[in-house]
């Protein structure tokens, strides 16, 4: 699990709840009119912006990957691919069938090598798999960003509606408070939804998209080099190009002679 995402959401919620409870209680900040304006309006605008199929795939996938962390990083992938290259060199492709591989994408590529598929088939299949995954992940971050953009705007819409209703009922003092609450709470709901949840999740998904693109491309190149029976040393040195400069030197220093 990506602890940073959970901690950030909890911290944002604690800050808002603390400020609310310091000057009153939660009932003061509960208004279904404002909730309808924000959540209904943002959802409706998102439906207009994106196809329904993109929303169905993007929202759950985005939520899943915003709270999960890749189990194997780039440095571990380089080490694992070098180890697999060593096995393939000593035992042949058949020896790869017995290896337990945690990463599903890498496991798929190694299975293709063990089954003897040609390099073009392996490259085309893995690149298509990578591109489809990244497309859905990109849709997820765009949808969350869209909701984050819409929510404050609909907060302003709710504020204007509340102000119109308030000024239209100036002769009835009993209605001024509820309408003013709608006006102010709509802005609060919109700002909170956008800046605590949606926009941070969109930024996190963008970073994960970049990370997944690098890691999956690294895996594709590594699998193809194993398919071509490249030496483990060459596999490691070629894949180090995917790591940041600092990590490249660390890998070279710790690499077996």
Keywords:
80% helix, 0% strand, single chain, elongated, mainly alpha, 257 residues
Can you walk through the features of this model?
The chain has 257 residues and is mainly α. The protein has a domain of 142 residues. It is built from nine helices and no strands.
Distance between the termini: 35 Å
What percent of residues are in strands? under 5%
SS-derived structural category: mainly alpha
Average residue pLDDT: 86
Q: Can you describe this structure in just a few lines?
A:
This protein has helices at residues 3-22, 32-49, 52-66, 74-91, 104-114, 119-168, 173-227, 232-239, 245-254. With 257 residues, the protein is mainly alpha-helical. Helix 4 (74-91) runs antiparallel to helix 8.
Question: What's the SSE blueprint?
Answer:
Blueprint: H1 3-22, H2 32-49, H3 52-66, H4 74-91, H5 104-114, H6 119-168, H7 173-227, H8 232-239, H9 245-254
Helix pairs in contact: 1-7, 2-6, 2-7, 3-6, 3-7, 4-7, 4-8, 5-7, 6-7, 7-8
């Amino acid at each position: 699990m990506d602890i940073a995402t959970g901690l950030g959401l909890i911290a944002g919620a604690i800050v808002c709840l603390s400020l609310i409870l310091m000057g009153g209680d939660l009932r003061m900040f509960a208004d279904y009119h404002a909730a309808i304006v924000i959540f209904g309006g943002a959802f409706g605008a998102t439906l207009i912006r994106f196809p329904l199929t993109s929303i169905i795939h993007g929202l759950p996938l985005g939520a899943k990957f915003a709270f999960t962390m890749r189990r194997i990083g780039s440095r571990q992938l380089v080490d694992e691919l070098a180890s697999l290259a060593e096995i393939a060199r000593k035992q042949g492709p058949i020896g790869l069938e017995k290896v337990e591989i945690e990463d599903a994408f890498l496991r798929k590529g190694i299975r293709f090598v063990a089954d003897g598929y040609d390099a073009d088939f392996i490259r085309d299949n893995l690149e298509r798999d990578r591109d489809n995954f990244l497309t859905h992940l990109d849709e997820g971050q765009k949808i969350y960003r869209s909701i984050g953009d819409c929510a404050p705007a609909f907060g302003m819409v709710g504020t204007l509606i509340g102000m119109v209703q308030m000024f239209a009922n100036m002769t009835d003092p009993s209605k001024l408070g509820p309408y003013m609450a709608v006006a102010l709470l709509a802005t609060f709901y919109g700002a909170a939804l956008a800046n605590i949840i949606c926009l941070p999740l969109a930024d996190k998904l963008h970073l994960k998209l970049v990370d997944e693109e690098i890691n999956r491309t690294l895996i594709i190149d590594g699998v193809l080099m194993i398919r071509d029976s490249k030496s483990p040393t060459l596999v490691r040195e070629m894949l180090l190009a995917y790591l940041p400069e600092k990590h490249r030197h660390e890998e070279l220093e710790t690499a077996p002679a």
